[in-house]
Description:
Low-confidence stretches: 64-73, 244-250
Largest sheet: 6 strands, parallel
Strand content: 15-25%
Distance between the termini: 31 Å
Radius of gyration: 21 Å
Number of strands: 15
Oligomer: single chain
Order of helices and strands: HEHHEEEHEHEHEEHEHEHEHEEHEE
Mean pLDDT: 86
Shape: globular
Structural class: alpha/beta
Amino acid sequence: MREPGDDRRRRILAVVEARGQARVTELAAELAVSVITVRRDVEELARAGRLRRGHGVVRSLVPRRPEPVATPPDGGPVVLVVPERHAYLTEVLHGARAALEAADVRVVLHPAPQVPGAERTIVERLLADDARGVLIAPRWRTVGTEDADDGWLAAADVPVVLMERRPRPGSALHARDSVCTDHWYGVHLAVTHLLALGHRRIVLAARDDSPTARALRAAFGDICAGRPDIEDWTVVLSAPGAGQQPVADLEPLAGVLRAHAATGVIMHGDVDALMLVQQLADAGITVPGDCSVVAYDDVVAALGSTPLTAIAPPKAEVGRLAAELVLERLNGPAGRPSRRITVLPELKVRGSSRPLID
C-alpha cells in the first residue's frame, strides 16, 4: 500500500501537468494540506526531475505536443470544458485527454470560471474557431442553471458528450451522449457497508449545489426509505453556503449525530469530509471510535490523519469513455443512436469505518 505522501505527490503532478502550471497556495487549498507540506512535496518532485519550481509557482515539464502547421482537413481540436479548480474533474479530463491524444486528436482545455454562463461563452467562441467536438462537465449549481444550458448546448452542431452529468429525462440534452458514474450505486455501497458493520442510524452530509450532490441526496433518501433495517436516517448540508439556507441555519454535524444517536456518516465531497471529521474531533466525537465515516469522491480521502473509507467513482474511466464516444461521432458512420453510459464506482475500505461496538 502506497504511503499517503506518494498519493499526494501524484495528485500534485497530475494537476500541474493538466494546467501547465499552478500556484503552491492553490495546490494546498485543493489538497486540504498546508502550504509547507505542498512546498516539501514540490521540492521532492523537482529533485526527481518531475516538475520545475518557481517563485510560488510550479510548472510542468511535460513537453507540449507540436502544433500542426495547418488545420487538418477533418477539422480542428476537441475541446475539454470543466469547472476551474475542480480536483475531481481533473482526473476525468486526464482520462479523456489520454484517449484523444492516443488517437492523434489535438486537445484544447478550457477551465470555466465560476461565473453564470461561462461555459456557453467558452464553447461558442471555440466552435467559431473550428473546434470539432466538445467534452463538457457544466457546473450546474442549481436545476435552474441546468435548464439555462439545455437548449444552446443541445443545439451545438458538433459532437457533444457530457461528462459526469446526467441530463434530466425529457430535456433537450437527453438525446446527447453522456458518461456518468452510477451515484445511486455508490450510495448503495456506502449504506450497505455501514449496515454490515452494525450501524443502523446513519446521516448523509452532502452539498446540494452540484448535480452529483443532488443525485446523492436523492439516492440516499430512496435507499434508506426502502431498508427496514435502518432505524433512523437524515440528510444535512455538508458546508456553509452549500445550498439556499443561510449559514446561521446550518446545524453542526456533531449536534445532528447526537440528536439522532447516529453512528455512521456518509460525507460528500472529500475536502468537506476531512473538515467535518476535524469538527467532530473538536466536539469530542472520534472517528472511527464513536462514529464510522464513508467519504464520497476519493480524491483526497486517503490523505486524512485517519484515512477515510471512500466511494471511488471511476473518474479517469469516465473521461476515457467520453473521449471514445466523441471519436466515434467524428470517425464513425453518421446516424448512430445516442448513448448514455453509466459506470459503477468502488468502495475503498480504510481506517475511518469499523464494526459498531455496543
